[in-house]
Please model this.
Amino acid sequence: MSFDLEVYGEHSLSSDQIAEVVLSVGGLVAEQDAAGASITAVRHADSERHCLTLDGPFGIDDGDIPERWQTALSGATVLYQIHADVEEDDVRCALAFSRMLASRVAGRVLDPQNDEAPGPRSAPTAESAYGQFLHLHWFRPGGIGEDVAALYLEVARELMPLAVPARFGPHEPFQGKLPRDDDAAFDRMYRTACAVDSMYFVGTAPSLGGYIDSWGAPNPKWPVDLMVTFDFSGLERAGAVSEITDFFVEVARRIGSFSAYVELNDAAYATAAPLRSLGAWAGLPDEPQWLTWYSQEYAALVHPYLTGGVSRSFPEGLLHQWSEAPMTAGQIRPLLTRAPWVPDELLPLRSPISRRRLLRVADEMPESLRGE
Model:
């Protein structure tokens, strides 16, 4: 199937910055022209088939915005045009990329074939007034049930009210709204509408929202991931930084996460998100992160190399914490006793030409995560 999307935004990204956005969507890589000045196509990491083409950014003014959308798109100065030519199971990748791009350019996704006004503006970017972001990212084995949305909301209600979504749905404009809807509606929408599409949500400051990956991936080896992002300075003002660790651990325990991390950085997206080959787990992040979680099976491989910080064991897995207060990867590196932070065998092999290209999954990982 094929379709077109447009992203109207306030920031013009370089080719390398767009490639980073592509990489943040599991399984996708960008192809650049010979000069590296523009993105020519987007494809799956393990395929030569192009699934997306991108044109732009094009400079625009108010006169270039369709009249019926000028109010909703006020302030937009650039336009990106996306053409998706995808298999049915790949639709979620195309939509995820368009939404992630909109987040990076402080923009909105628009379907030019649809007369409906575009949905809410995406999360602010690093170029905004925010200084740092805190990303909580969990990975769960695929094929183990459709209850992850309900479990996440349950823990957020108990331990981190700031993480409770305000609006939610698989596409914009989001149809779900809390507290207008009850919690069962959040669970029900994920179960019924997200076999292929991810569930996206936006929060109330300092939460910038996040997503829950679709539960119906065609390959059960494909991990289901869940992420929520906060404005870090907002968390500090709310006095809620101390709540992050317990919330992070409890979500990991209840959803059966095999790997998870909390990253502090100055980008509106999680730069530590590990590359994933299509249909399988690729390995641990290249850089150490403030908080990390490992299932019992993964902890047996990783724990011997966690020589700094503090580790805590739980029946479901292991938490490692470098410090009481959140730290960036750059602040953690001086604490390491080895480089990289774990042996290369636990990390995916990247291309020496482009770090954004995955050549091989990690040699060492739990057998349950290996692709067929």
In short: The longest strand covers residues 50-59. The mean pLDDT is 84. The chain is about 20% helix and 25% strand.
